Amino acid sequence: MAAIVARAANGGLRGRQETSRGSLVRRRRDYAVVVAVVTGAGAPPPQEGALERPAWSGETPVSRLVGALIAFKPLYALMKLASREVIIRTAEKANIPWREMTKKVLESDVYEVFERIRDPNLVYPDYYLSPFHAYDEGNLSWLAAAEAEAATLSIAKRAIPEATSIEEANQIVRGNWMNAIEEHHLKYSGHRQINDILDIGCSVGVSTRYLADRFPSAKAVGLDLSPYFLAVAAQKEEKMSRQHPIRWVHANGEETGLSPDLFDVVSLAYVCHECPARAIHGLVKEAFRLLRPGGTIALTDNSVRKSQQCSLLSFQERKDSNLTPFLHSLLLAAKIQSTSGTITSVVHIDEEH
């Protein structure tokens, strides 16, 4: 694990912080520490400085070519089917029982859980209603929810190709993330115990369960925009035994409706790369509002350089969602550069106002 620490006090981040797009975000605290951790096994130390813009971002020849190909809908439909089949076969070759896991979810009582957990009055942001990850309904579908955990395991193996098993890859990715949060909180929180955790964009609860397992005395909340994902998360959690069962909340991470100063740790795991800039700004602003003095915000996401290795279909998804510029801006704010693995930024907010 390699880390880079940047301290900002008094002048730089005091009272406000300028984002890479020039807007200003109010800060509630005077002092911040940013830790960036690369969770790839054997990855080189991150380097300070400006990030290199990925070759497939913006209006590049490759991006224009992909746009022209995708514009022909019959060809796009074939590409989507072929891409899905490749992804599933690749996962199953890595001993991830993709089809079996999907079938188990779809044949469970998850539909009853859905009715209990869904907020029928929730208004979805426009970007969330677009096709995404080769699903026509994006994250608002049962197939996306049923395949999410298998896809998550597959991504971990791709991030750590040298791992000998899925379990080892997952332990490296998630274990290093947990270590970064725990070590940073212990160092900078004034020895405050972690009692309450919020996992924004929790999907089907993989990251939330890791947080709950690592901090068993804490009360964990998983929050997501997709009631389908939350139903899968809640249905699986019902079979587990915990001191504090995880609470699942169907809400927008930009406006959660939760009370301020409520959590010791706020996590966004593999969320920001799927969001437009305005949503990222809203998510971070809300995370700061919900954080207690002395708390920790943890963001973990794919390395920009690692993300360049993707299929033609992935190119288009990134182009459609304007993914790249916003992830680029997020990592640029932390001034780190990685060649592989996953990046975790841990932000501590001092109790001073």
UniProtKB/TrEMBL annotation:
Location of the Methyltransferase domain: 197-295
Pfam families: Methyltransf_25
Signal peptide stretch: none
InterPro entries xref list: Methyltransf_25, Methyltransf_Superfamily, SAM-dependent_MTases_sf
Spans through the membrane: none
Domain of life from the UniProt record: Eukaryota
Record's protein name: Methyltransferase domain-containing protein
UniProt source species: Brachypodium distachyon (Purple false brome)
Gene behind this protein: LOC100842468
